[in-house]
Structures are given as structure tokens and as C-alpha cells.
Amino acid sequence: MKKLLLSLFSFGALFFACVPSEEIKPAEANLRTLAAYEKELANSSTKFALDLFAQLNDPEEPNQFYSPYSIHQALSMTMNGNKGEVLQEFVDLLRYEGMSMDDANRGSKEMTEFLLQVDPKVKMAIANAIWYKQGYQVQVPFKNTAREYYNAEIAALDMRNPNSVNIINNWIAQKTNNLIKDMLDQIPSNAVMYLVNAIYYKADWKYQFDASKTKKENFYPNPGNPALVDMMDSDKPSAFRSYFGDGYHYFEIPYSTGQYSMGILYNPQGNLDQISQYLNLGNLEMWRKNSSEQNFILKMPKFKMKYKMANMKDDLMEMGLVKPFSFHPDNFTKLFSNPTDDLKISRVIHDAVIEVDEKGTEAAAATIVEVVERTSMPTGPRTVVLDKPFIFFIQEKHSGAILFMGKLGDPSKL
Q1: 276 and 216 inside one domain
Q2: Could you tell me if 250 and 309 lie in one domain?
Q3: Residue 17, CB half-sphere, CA atoms under 13 Å: how many?
Q4: What share of the chain is helix, strand, coil (3-state, %, to 5)?
Q5: pTM to 2 decimals?
Q6: Residue among 330, 241, 336 at smallest CA distance from 288
């Protein structure tokens, strides 16, 4: 019997020794060297995110949530329909200074691909789509750029059909795992194009919270005025990359392999106005570079937030994107090959949702750029009614000679 047990033990040891090591190794990040234009794109996107935070940060609104990356992607795609001074406004807003259009577009494509692939344990999706008015013709270079660099789905849409709203909304819902629903309320009669980005993210914490430790505790929106919230508790120390500044603390709560994290910036007083002044690209780079691992127990609120901006027009205009929001012949000259009346962006709609619990984080956002025409151009043949007196003549095209001429003032008297 002892020999049999020994044989079985030896066989088991041999079996587990033969299991390929990659099957039991933890998942690793898919890292690669970033090209110069990818690094520039990442910096541009981050600068835009910080600019946007400074613009949208409203002391009267205690909670805000949005996706700067989604907005940056949607406006980058829209940018390619312009040239000259209008294009320059997009370049300045999106912080593409010093980059060529090719590098900006190529950087957008490859940075998105990198983000989607870098962590195999993070579920992530980024998608773009363009719908244009049925009967209109999109210029081939714009269409090619949208497909090649933004992997955009492009389709004509009968915008007079009430169901067209559902087509766009259903696409957004599908791409955001049904977190963003019924985002677009209506399609105006003079709409000619919708440029849409959707982003979805789901990841588990590297160090998950024990749900049994979550309990109601005080959270202080204002000193001395507590509110009861569901407070999660890690219960035991974990390693968080941290940087302690003069009166503030920056740290990162890692997801999965640690390639993604939730950055936190706070001070013990909970003074958002005070700490927001430290939020800039230079400090962010310094915090990331100089932070070190600190072991501590983390307690934080469990929360779910939905935040929608019905139109970002005023904020984007204050940030420098002005001409595209007014009808002007210079707007979107590289968009359509058929003649159109003056075009403008009427709305930039953004919708976002996030849920943070003991297991991790699920978040989604979508951005819609709505382009409209000054007048709704008829899609069928025009009807001209000659019901007033008129002059008429018969002429030869090549020479211009008029062979006959007359006027009709009252056909009833003929």
C-alpha cells in the first residue's frame, strides 16, 4: 500500500511539474515601446483632460464625471472635416500643437489600440461611428481617415425617420454594455451628420475589498455636516503608490496587473478648491515618477454616479473652439462633396456613468457631435411655380444669341 501511495504521489508531482508555467503565471501587461507620436498623443490627451477639468469644475456641483478621452476622440474625428483657421481651433483645443495631422490621427489610432490591449484582465472597448444624411455624399478623404485611424462605422441615415434616433441610441447602448441608454433625444430637421464615440471599461481591483466589511459610516461633504454612506474597508494594509505633497496626498489604487489605476488627489480638509490648483501636467508627471509604494489600509465610499452634459457648446467655446459653433462657409469644407448650405456644430452631448464597489470599477461614456445645416436642403427635386408675370427668351448656348424673347403677364387674355 505504501508503494502504491508513493507511486501516486510521484505521478502527481510529475504531472504538476509538466503543467506549462504560463497556465499558472499571473497575467502580465502587454507592454511595448511607444512611438514618439504616440507619446505626443498621450500628452495631448492628458493636457486636454486637465484643461477640461479646469473648465468644468463647478463649485456648485458636488459630483461630476465624464470621459475626456471619449470627448477628445469624437472631436479629433470631427477635426478632419476642416481646414485653415477652423482646423487650427480644433488643433489648439485638442492640444495637438507641434503635431502634424497625420501624426495626430495615427497617434489616436495606435494609442487606442495600445489601451485596448495593454491589460488582458481589463475589459475595455472604444468605438467610433458616423451617420450622415441620406442623399449627401461624404468626401472620400474624410471617410478614409475616419475608417483608417478611428475604425469608424460610417453609414447613411434617413434623419427624417423617427426610428433613426433609436439606431444611434441602440449602437451606443451596445458599445457601452447597456450603461448608456437613450442618449440622443431627437434629430432636428437640419441635421446632416452625427459623429459618435463610445467607451466602456470594467476592471477588478488588484486588492479587492471584502464586502462583509462595508458598512454605513460618515462622509463629510462640509466640515461638521456628515452624511452616512456605504464605506468600503480593505481591512488589511496593501501597497499603493503614493506621493505626499505640501498639504495634499496623491496615490493610485491599482486595477488588475497595475497598468490601470484610479488616481486619487485629496487633502485632510477635503478642500477641492485648494487641491485642484495642484492638478497640472507637470505635477501629474512628477507624482507618477516620484511616487513610492506605501502600505496602508484603505477606506473609501462605494458609489454609483451618472452625469450627463446636454450640450458642451459654451464650455468648449470658452476653451477656444468658437467658429465651428456658428454657421460659416469655412466650417466643415472637407466633409461633403455635394453642395451644402453653411454648417455648424449645434450640440456636443456627453453622457457618462461609473460604479465603484468592493470588486472593482465599471464605467462607460459616449460623446455625440451633432452637425447641422443652416437650412434643411430638400432631398427631392425642387418645385418652381410660375404663377406671376415673367419674361422669357430662346437663346443659343454657344454663341449666346437670343433668337426669341417675350413676356407673359396674363395668360387669360391670350
Answers
A1: yes
A2: no
A3: 6
A4: 30, 30, 35
A5: 0.86
A6: 241
